[in-house]
Design goal:
281 residues, MetI-like fold, 2 domains, transport, cell membrane, Carbohydrate ABC transporter permease, membrane, transmembrane
C-alpha cells in the first residue's frame, strides 16, 4: 500500500511539473498573439493585460505595410525564397555527401569527418565580418543567392552528419538488388535510396527550416536593402527614429512565427525523428 501511494505521489508530482512546463512554453506564444491584437495605447499602458477588444486589424495592416509603408508581404516572400532555396541545396548536397561518407572509402575520409565536427564547433557569428566582405567582393549582398549560400554553408555540416548516421543503418540489400538489376551507383542512389529515405530527408529538412526561417543576424547584415529584407529583419522596420509602432511590430512577429508553429504542429513526429537521427550509429 505504501509503495502504491508513493508511486501515485510520484506520478502526481511529474504531472504537475509537466503541466507547469507546458504553461511556461505556451505563455510566450499566447502573450505574443494577444499583444498583437492590442492597440498601441493598450500596449503602452499595461502590456500584461489581455486586449479589451481583440482584433485582427493589426495583422492586416502590418501585412500591407502599416503607416510606414513597409512591405511585410514582400519580406515574407523573401523568407520563403531564401528558406526554400537553402533547404533544396542542403537536402541535395547533404544526402549525397552523407551517403558517400557511409558507403565509400577514399583518401581523407577520416579528416573530412573530423572537419565536419570542427565546423559545428565554430560559432557562426564569429565569421560575420569575413562573410560580409566576401559577399561584397562577389556582389552577393542583397542577393538571394548570397544569403542562401551562407545558410547552406553553416547548416550543411549538421545535415551531412545526421544523414551519414541514417545511411549507416540503411539496408544494403536494397542497393545490392538494384545493382543486380543493372543500376549504376547514381541510379541506385536516386531511384532506390532517396525514395526510401524520404522520411529521414524530410525530418532533417524540417529541423533546418526552424533555424533558417528564424535567423536574424546574417539576414540583417547581408540583406539591408528595403525590398530584400527577410521577415525577421522586417520586424525592425516598425521601429522609427522618433516612433515605434508596437502593435504592428507585434503583429509582424506573430506573422513571422506562424509558419514555424504550423510546421511544428503538422510535422512534430518528423522533428522528433530528425533529432534522433544522429543516435543510430
Amino acid at each position: 500500500m505504501i509503495s502504491r501511494r508513493l508511486t501515485r505521489i510520484g506520478y502526481f508530482i511529474i504531472l504537475l511539473f509537466l503541466i507547469f512546463w507546458a504553461i511556461a512554453e505556451l505563455f510566450p506564444i499566447v502573450f505574443l498573439y494577444l499583444t498583437a491584437m492590442k492597440t498601441d495605447e493598450e500596449i503602452m499602458n499595461n502590456i500584461l493585460l489581455p486586449p479589451q477588444r481583440p482584433s485582427f486589424r493589426n495583422f492586416v495592416l502590418a501585412w500591407r505595410g502599416g503607416n510606414l509603408g513597409v512591405p511585410i508581404s514582400r519580406y515574407f516572400l523573401n523568407s520563403v525564397i531564401v528558406t526554400g532555396g537553402t533547404l533544396f541545396f542542403l537536402t541535395f548536397l547533404g544526402a549525397m555527401a552523407g551517403y558517400g561518407l557511409s558507403r565509400f572509402l577514399f583518401p581523407g575520409k577520416s579528416f573530412f569527418q573530423k572537419f565536419l565536427i570542427f565546423a559545428l564547433a565554430v560559432p557562426a557569428h564569429a565569421t560575420l565580418i569575413p562573410v560580409f566582405h566576401f559577399l561584397g567582393r562577389f556582389g552577393l549582398r542583397n542577393n538571394y543567392l548570397g544569403l542562401i549560400f551562407v545558410y547552406t554553408a553553416f547548416w550543411l555540416p549538421f545535415t551531412i552528419l545526421m544523414l551519414y548516421s541514417y545511411f549507416g543503418s540503411f539496408p544494403r540489400e536494397l542497393e545490392d538488388a538494384a545493382r543486380i538489376d543493372g543500376l549504376s551507383e547514381l541510379g541506385t542512389f536516386f531511384r532506390v535510396v532517396v525514395p526510401v529515405s524520404k522520411g529521414a530527408l524530410s525530418s532533417v529538412s524540417i529541423v533546418n527550416f526552424v533555424g533558417i526561417w528564424s535567423e536574424l543576424l546574417f539576414a540583417f547584415l547581408i540583406m539591408n536593402r528595403e525590398k530584400m529584407k527577410t521577415i525577421t529583419v522586417g520586424v525592425l522596420s516598425f521601429r522609427g527614429q522618433y516612433e515605434v509602432q508596437w502593435s504592428f511590430m507585434f503583429a509582424t512577429m506573430a506573422i513571422a512565427a506562424l509558419p514555424t508553429i504550423i510546421f511544428f504542429l503538422i510535422f512534430q513526429k518528423q522533428i522528433t525523428k530528425g533529432m534522433l537521427l544522429g543516435s543510430f550509429r
